[in-house]
Amino acid sequence: MKVLVTGVAGFIGMHCARRLLGRGDEVIGVDNLSPYYAVELKRARLKEIAHRSLRFHELDIADADPLAALFEREKPAAVLHLAAQAGVRYSLVNPASYVQSNLVGFANVLEACRAHPPRHLVFASSSSVYGKNAKLPWSETDNVDHPISLYAATKKANELSAHAYSHLYGLQTTGLRYFTVYGPWGRPDMSAMLFAQAILDGKPIEVYNHGDMQRDFTYIDDIVEGTLRVLDKPAAYAIYNIGNHTPVGLLDYIAALERALGAKARLEMRPMQPGDVKATYADTRALAKAVGFAPATPLESGLARFAEWFRSYYRR
Fold first, then answer.
1. Tens of pLDDT along 272-298?
2. Which of 199, 219, 263, 287 is the least buried, fewest Cβ under 10 Å from its Cβ?
3. What DSSP line would sit under 198-245, residue for residue?
4. pTM
């Protein structure tokens, strides 16, 4: 199967592409190599997945014409749309980048799919759409009309736009609400990478809300497994959580990372940050019912694999 993967040089994109190539699929990879974080890490990911069945295009999905031309030329059987401007806190600093990548870019992807319909479009949403929903765990049937960051608002907009294209044009679309993904080759702006760097450098970690936070940390291999199972099962329109269904306290998470790295952290307590939430917790019953899988990798196991990669890649 020919699969077009946007954001192929990103964290989840790289891992999904590697699994697709490993099972014999042809991958058309798209990425604009944004300098939001180190481009050398993105290029290293691309080198890691270099394969005769991977064709990479450095292309910005916010540029409609080149994207449309690529779809016209390749006519992919499936589309895995992972390209986006990520991060809650950065959306407070550079909102324009979220509008371009997450709104304009997603609209361009939908239009390209309308012109050349794949058997399935799967796109990345986010647990951030749940905002400050008090009921836990979060379920796909919960109201998500009150985002508390622009990033979350763009992801909710993606879900609504995909629903409209599914209704109007019969496009088979599924959105995946990812919950705090971690593991080897992760993004440098996420907690595992930030904390590991600080711990090994002997620098303090900023602990928000004075440590009174929980996250549903989800290991990258589980994310890939769930994503590809969904990709292989087209739906008229669906939304699924992909999370570990096991929220972990922030201080417990830091302690587990200390054990994985064999080093102690210095903690600096800070208040809650704008746009942040106290807890995330995924109800994964819908995903399990649809594809027979739900993430379950224990945090200790996942962090051990992450720490091994981190020390190797950064030569620590």
1. 888 778 889 999 999 999 999 999 999
2. 263
3. HHHHTPEEEEGGGG--EE--EEHHHHHHHHHHHHTS--SEEEEEE--S
4. 0.96
